[in-house]
């Protein structure tokens, strides 16, 4: 393998960082022992910039190219965004209707369980007298439970490693 560029990131299918490389796991490194690497990364990924800096942390993240996307979103170097789980709010749901199905035939039961609405020959509403009954649970749909859902695309976990040693890249 040819000598890598300093700060080059590679994906590997084994479970260790080769000599001269480190996992992209956000570890903090001392500037005084990694001055060339710090000159490339700075504090883009963390650290105080006086004595320490951080390597990129790609654990649980999908890398994307920096710049602006077609949707007009800007993605500066080192920006983290997204979420592994998400709880939907009512504002995120498309407009929709829950239609009540019924029959044009007269009703033949006063028990709603397993039935649909039928044509009622008398007035539909009445004063609140007597014992009220909840509709059958099969008549009411419980949509959601306020719980977050998995928000991750299909993935394959591999190790990302960054070169701690190598050729210092020159600019064009």
TrEMBL record:
It comes from the Bacteria. It holds the Pfam family Collar. Residues 8-63 form the Phage tail collar domain. InterPro entries: Phage_tail_collar_dom, Phage_tail_collar_dom_sf. This is Phage tail protein. It comes from Arcticibacterium luteifluviistationis. The lineage of its organism: Bacteria, Pseudomonadati, Bacteroidota, Cytophagia, Cytophagales.
């Amino acid at each position: 393998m040819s000598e890598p560029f300093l700060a080059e990131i590679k994906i590997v299918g084994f479970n260790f960082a080769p000599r001269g490389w480190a996992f992209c796991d956000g570890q903090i490194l001392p500037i005084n022992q990694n001055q060339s690497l710090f000159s490339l990364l700075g504090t883009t990924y963390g650290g105080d910039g006086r004595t320490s800096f951080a390597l990129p942390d790609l654990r649980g993240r999908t890398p994307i190219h920096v710049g602006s996307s077609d949707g007009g979103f800007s993605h500066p170097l080192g920006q983290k965004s997204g979420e592994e789980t998400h709880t939907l709010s009512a504002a995120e749901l498309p407009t929709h209707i829950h239609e009540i199905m019924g029959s044009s035939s007269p009703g033949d039961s006063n028990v709603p369980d397993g039935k649909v609405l039928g044509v009622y020959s008398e007035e539909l509403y009445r004063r609140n007298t007597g014992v009220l009954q909840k509709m059958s649970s099969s008549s009411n749909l419980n949509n959601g439970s306020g719980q977050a859902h998995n928000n991750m695309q299909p993935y394959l976990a591999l190790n990302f490693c960054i070169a701690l040693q190598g050729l210092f890249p020159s600019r064009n």
